[in-house]
Specification:
By secondary structure, this protein is an alpha+beta fold. Helix content is 28%, strand content 35%. It contains 4 helices and 13 strands. The chain is elongated, with a radius of gyration of 36 Å. It starts with a strand and ends in a 6-residue tail after the last helix. The relative contact order is 0.11.
Length: 237
């Protein structure tokens, strides 16, 4: 569960590019709060405080408590626009979250048990199909991650969503399809070794085939020689 962080804000009366530019010049980041029964609210937040919150990680899956003079609003960040040059935030969208609300959100997938996986021990490669899974979660129980155990996975085997232990209350957005989360595939080296082993096992059989074909031919030659010897008249005494 992500810890709720608190972030101070001020209401921004004027809208548009001009006021937003002026706010950035003062070290503020324009933002908007939307959702719920209230009207959208344009605000500004301190740029340094926002950057520190982002640097903590998992910003887009973190609950925030926006505070304006003691009036608090629980939100979750939905989008952060970054400056293409400085990579600093220039605008943020916040979604209001009422008590008991659920939220649709992408949860990152992490993996454990790589050291015990028989497929990886044989030289296989972990093929990650889903780096994140879109889930519907209670706003009060947003998980930091979905953990997938691959300790028993062998080469050519896979793990589907039905085999994953999901966080309490979380459900995948994709329903009615048991989609693949990861699999273990043979690496190029392993495939080459398998081909070489298959070729080596086929070689003795290939060598034995001409020898087996030659044996009846020799026998047939001897059979032809026998009647010829029998047909030769015996010498007169």
């Amino acid at each position: 569960m992500t810890q709720i962080q608190e972030l101070a804000f001020e209401t921004r009366a004027n809208k548009g590019k001009g006021p937003a530019y002026q706010a950035r010049q003062k070290g503020l980041v324009p933002a908007i709060i939307y959702g719920g029964s209230d009207q959208p609210q344009t605000i500004t937040v301190d740029a340094r405080a926002l950057e520190r919150a982002i640097e903590k990680g998992s910003f887009l899956t973190s609950l925030l408590m926006l505070n304006e003079g003691g009036k608090k609003t629980r939100v979750i960040p939905r989008q952060v626009q970054l400056d293409p040059v400085s990579d600093r935030p220039v605008h943020v969208d916040f979604l209001r979250l009422a008590d008991g609300a659920s939220v649709r959100i992408e949860i990152p997938v992490h993996f454990k048990g790589q050291g015990e996986s028989p497929g990886l021990k044989k030289g296989g490669v972990l093929n990650i199909v889903r780096h994140a899974i879109e889930m519907i979660c209670p706003a009060d129980h947003i998980p930091n991650e979905i953990l997938v155990d691959v300790s028993k996975l062998d080469i050519a085997e896979s793990i589907n969503i039905s085999s994953v232990v999901l966080p309490e209350g979380a459900k995948p957005v994709i329903r009615g399809r048991d989609f693949t989360v990861c699999s273990i595939v043979a690496s190029t080296t392993v495939r080459e070794e398998q081909k070489a082993a298959a070729s080596a096992s086929d070689a003795p059989a290939a060598e034995a085939a001409p020898a087996a074909a030659a044996a009846p031919a020799a026998g047939a030659k001897d059979a032809k020689a026998a009647p010829a010897a029998a047909a030769k008249p015996a010498a007169k005494k």
